[in-house]
Amino acid sequence: MTTDTTPPHVPCAITEPVLAQLRTADDAGRPLTAVTDPEGGAPLRCCLRRSAPGERIALVSYAPLRRWAARTGVAPGAYDEQGPVFIHAEACGGPESGGLAFTRAHRVLRRYSRDGRILGGRLVTPPEDFDGALSEAFTDPEVALVHVRAVEYGCFLYEVRRP
Questions:
Q1: Per-residue pLDDT for 39 more than 80?
Q2: Minimal CA–CA distance to 96: which of 30, 27, 144, 48?
Q3: How confident is the model at residue 9 (pLDDT cuts 50, 70, 90)?
Q4: Quick count: other Cβ atoms within 10 Å of Cβ 60?
Q5: Residue 117 — left, alpha, or beta (φ > 0 → left; ψ -120 to 50 → alpha)?
Q6: 19, 91 in Cβ contact below 8 A?
Q7: Phi and psi (nearest 5°) for 16?
Q8: Using alpha carbons only, what angle is made at residue 91 by residues 87 and 92, rounded to the nearest 5 degrees?
Q9: Residue 92: is its pLDDT beyond 90?
């Protein structure tokens, strides 16, 4: 019997310090507009779960690769993009678990190098292939992080860094 000693892939939610900035002005420079979610179901990037009916949320513009590049000292160049993400309008405490989130739908896994350049992507379908596709992405030693994105709108969901 063999034992897999590979560390698990841990999703990286948007951190509270970044959320505090986004709640003041998002990455497009717009002020926060909070709403009460009447139906629930919005994929929250702050705690990596779906919103519940009645929660206060906001849709903000977020530049994930720009933020990662600023922390690591690289320039993302043309891959610096921003897009809409849902967050709680107030601090929420972050994810309750370290498990992979939002995996029960078709997803795109976009791979990036240590210098912030895109190395490729993969459409994950059926959703049952998500774990294997993510593990496969990290078999390339050049991959530093993977962005998990929704297929329907291309929205950033979260990043996974090299284990």
A1: yes
A2: 48
A3: confident
A4: 26
A5: beta
A6: yes
A7: -60, -40
A8: 75
A9: yes
| Average pLDDT for the chain | 92
Instruction: Count the helices and strands in the chain (H runs, E runs).
Output: 3, 10
Within 10 angstroms of residue 2's Cβ, the number of other Cβ atoms is 4
CA distance 125 to 50: 21
Question: Please, which pLDDT band fits residue 156 given cuts at 50, 70 and 90?
Answer: very high
The pLDDT value recorded for residue 127 is 82
Amino acid at residue number 105: A
Predicted model pTM: 0.91
Cα 66 to Cα 159: distance, rounded to the nearest angstrom: 13
Query: Do the beta carbons of residue 97 and residue 47 sit within 8 Å?
Result: no
CA-to-CA separations, 112 to 4, 85, 129, in angstroms, rounded: 25, 20, 20
Written as six digits, the tokens of 43 are: 């994929």
